[in-house]
């Protein structure tokens, strides 16, 4: 069954199919730029958490390769891949495991078309930025390649660094990132804005009180921006399952119904533990999985597949 989520339409959205600019714009010219599209539609994949479970098993290569095989065998090749962090186990020096992770991906898909977020298991901004030299650099000064955005067709993709903590060691998006996020959302004239970070704002169980929710005031400030600018969807990992949650006015003074999609099923040890399942529409599904998003004008079609290529969720958002 497909679920359709109708969101607030901007006046200009009525003209989007006639006025789409088939261009890709970036702030800098010294990093990879995806090619322009020949049609007003495109697709991308979102995954997260391919880490193994020990220093001598930093990547769950078997499961990760199975998922990549399914993706590349699909009838529609994605234009790019988003990865929401925790690529490797990340104890000690992560340069070598990140290099190995890139080699694995490159067997299936050009690494320059992969746009990752830094997870807590990477936890080395310099090593992360060095490993992914194709990403925009210093769009937010001091964050190197861990905070960035890029535009593709009628959509803006915003990647944040959630591997920062306050004095109590709680995960936060600090004031500097939040100011940059608002500026980046406010300047967007795109039909869709997608936001990706590693830790969820509203965890469901295994990392309850170990995500942005550990600092609810700061978390709410972040989500107020998500709500204010009517973001199409927020992608995260951290919890090793799939779940689709609708964040609405039952969580705070929010005007919209925004999707938080937890996609932590690319290889990490699975779990479906629940502490708070408010407005969880699907899941938690403790299965290895990936998400495909097909964007055509104001419509974004989301489909989640498990490692055996079986559909486990499908829905549509219209902006």
Q: Your description of this structure?
A:
- The chain is α/β, with parallel strands linked by helices and about 325 residues long.
- It is about 20% helix and about 30% strand.
- The strands form four sheets. The protein has a seven-stranded mixed sheet with strand order 1-18-17-16-2-5-6, with no helix packed on it. A seven-stranded mixed sheet has the order 7-8-11-12-14-13-15, covered by helices on one side. Strands 3-4 form a two-stranded antiparallel sheet.
- A hairpin with a 5-residue loop joins strand 9 (about 165) and strand 10 (about 170).
- The longest helix has 13 residues, at about 60-75.
- The two termini are about 20 Å apart.
Layout of helices and strands, plus pairs?
Blueprint (H helix, E strand, L loop, with lengths): L2 E4 L9 H4 L21 E7 L3 E4 L2 E3 L1 H13 L6 E4 L11 H12 L7 E3 L8 H7 L16 E5 L2 E5 L4 E2 L5 E2 L2 H12 L5 E5 L19 H13 L4 E4 L5 E6 L10 E6 L16 E6 L3 E8 L2 E8 L4 E8 L1
């Amino acid at each position: 069954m497909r679920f359709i989520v109708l969101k607030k339409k901007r006046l200009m959205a009525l003209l989007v199919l006639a006025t789409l600019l088939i261009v890709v714009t970036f702030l800098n010219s010294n990093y990879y730029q995806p090619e322009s599209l020949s049609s007003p539609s495109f697709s991308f994949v979102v995954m997260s958490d391919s880490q193994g479970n020990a220093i001598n098993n930093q990547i769950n290569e078997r499961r990760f390769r199975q998922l990549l095989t399914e993706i590349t065998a699909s009838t529609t090749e994605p234009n790019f891949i988003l990865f929401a962090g925790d690529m490797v186990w990340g104890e000690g020096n992560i340069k070598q495991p990140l290099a190995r992770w890139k080699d694995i991906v490159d067997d299936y898909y050009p690494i320059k078309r992969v746009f990752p977020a830094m997870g807590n298991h990477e936890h080395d901004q310099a090593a992360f930025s060095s490993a992914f030299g194709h990403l925009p650099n210093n769009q937010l000064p001091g964050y190197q390649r861990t905070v960035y955005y890029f535009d593709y067709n009628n959509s803006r993709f915003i990647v944040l660094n959630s591997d920062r903590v306050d004095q109590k060691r709680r995960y936060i998006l600090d004031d500097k990132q939040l100011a940059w996020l608002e500026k980046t959302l406010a300047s967007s004239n795109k039909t869709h804005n997608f936001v990706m970070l590693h830790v969820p704002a509203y965890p469901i169980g295994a990392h309850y009180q170990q995500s942005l929710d550990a600092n609810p005031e700061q978390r709410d400030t972040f989500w107020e921006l998500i709500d204010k600018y009517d973001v199409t969807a927020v992608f995260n990992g951290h919890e090793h399952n799939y779940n689709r949650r609708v964040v609405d006015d039952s969580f705070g003074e929010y005007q919209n119904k925004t999707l938080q999609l937890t996609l932590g099923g690319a290889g990490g040890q699975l779990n479906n533990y629940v502490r708070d399942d408010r407005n969880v529409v699907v899941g938690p599904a403790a299965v290895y999985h990936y998400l495909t998003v097909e964007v055509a004008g104001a419509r974004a079609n989301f489909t989640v597949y498990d490692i055996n290529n079986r559909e486990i969720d499908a829905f549509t958002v219209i902006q």
